[in-house]
Every structure is written in C-alpha cells, then in structure tokens.
Amino acid sequence: MLLFNTMVVVQVKINKGWLDSNSFDFHISHKASPHCDDRECDDISLLVIHNISLPPGKFGSNHITDLFLGQLNPNDDDYFKDIYKLRVSAHLLVRRDGSVIQYVPLNKRAWHAGVSEFCGRQKCNDYSIGIEMEGTDELPYTESQYSSLATLTEAIMANYPDINKQRITGHCHIAPGRKTDPGKSFDWQQYFASVADNCILKQ
C-alpha cells in the first residue's frame, strides 16, 4: 500500500555519522573501513542502492566485509585474485537476513559509486550515501532486506532532508553502461511503497 502524506517517527539514531538502534528487532553492527575520506562538499543529497555478493551469487560469508576492510584473502576464491586489492566501500550493507553492517560514517565519503553522474552532477561519491544489498541482479531480494532498507532510508531522510524519494537511485542509473546493480530483481515499487514520504526523528 502506498503511503501518502504520512509522518513516521524514526527509531534509528545517527551519532557522528554512525547509525544506532536500540531495537532488538533491528541490529546494526559497526566495522570501520579505511576506504573513505572527507567529503568535498557540504551537502548530502543522494542515496544510491547497490548490490554485491562474494563470490558472485553466494551469500552469508564475511567476504564482503573483508573486501571493504581491505582484508580479502585472494586464496579464498579464484575470483578474489582480481579484486582483493580494490579500495572500495559502502556506507551500509543489508544482509540477506536483514541485518545491517555499517562501514563508513554517513558524514564521510565512502568509495562506492566510481565514475558517476546524477541529474548532470558528477562525482556522486561526494554527495551521496551508498547502501549495498547482499544479492545479485537476477535473484529476488528478501522481505527482511526490504524492511531493513526502508528503515535505513527513513532514518537517512529524517537526518538529511535533501534526500527524498526523487533523490534515491540505483548504481545502474548513475553509471549506465558500466554498472547494472541493483538489477532487474530489485523491486523499486515495493521499496518506495514501504518508505514514508515524511520522516521525523524520535526525540
């Protein structure tokens, strides 16, 4: 059901860029990545949705975290031999079970978008927040993932009012021809229907 003109009180707090939740039903763990730096602009005005799985199509391991922390072992899988030296990260990862890991504080620049452009503005890393969904372009995402993504989105929108539904996009949209994620399997209609139009922080 689409939600119009509704006001949601967000339970997730943000302290110095780090998300925190006191809910037993929504756990966020923190694993600080060295792959980040200071933003080159003041505005945070875009949310970018990605997908990732390591090795491709396999879920549930710690390999994504290892990659974002610069600790991926090239001997764990042949695929890793080509990527283990990459210096990449995202602000957040939503696992298949809906659990969330944060790697970079939201006020810092994560290295998730690469060469990119949104509405004529380049260098999306400078002004965006990147969320990785554990998944592939082909396999459906889980209901737990959509629920967690909606919770994260509402918290981000409440803290960064320049981000609204019109400024939420996929990696495929800001890097067309180079990237395809989050893929055809991502249900944008379901996602947007689960995110309130107006969000306020819990006092």
Written description of the protein model:
The protein has 203 residues and is of the alpha/beta class. The chain has four helices and 14 strands. The strands form five sheets. Strands 4-8-7-12-6-13 form a six-stranded mixed sheet. Helix 2 (143-159) packs across helix 4. The longest helix has 17 residues, at 143-159. It is globular. The model is unreliable at 1-6 (pLDDT under 50).
Which characteristics define this entry?
4 helices; alpha/beta; 14 strands
In short:
With 203 residues, the chain is α/β, with parallel strands linked by helices. It contains four helices and 14 strands. It has a six-stranded mixed beta sheet. Strands 1-14 form a two-stranded parallel sheet. Strands 2-3 form a two-stranded antiparallel ribbon.
* Rg measurement, Å: 16 Å
Largest sheet: 6 strands, mixed
* Poorly predicted runs: 1-6
User: Approximately what portion of the residues adopt beta-strand conformation?
Assistant: 15-25%
Topology at a glance:
Blueprint: E1 7-10, E2 13-15, E3 18-20, E4 28-30, E5 36-38, E6 46-52, H1 63-68, E7 92-94, E8 100-102, E9 108-110, E10 117-118, E11 121-122, E12 128-134, H2 143-159, E13 168-170, H3 171-174, H4 188-194, E14 198-201
Parallel strand pairs: 1-14, 4-8, 6-12, 6-13, 7-12
Antiparallel strand pairs: 2-3, 5-9, 7-8, 10-11
Helix pairs in contact: 2-4
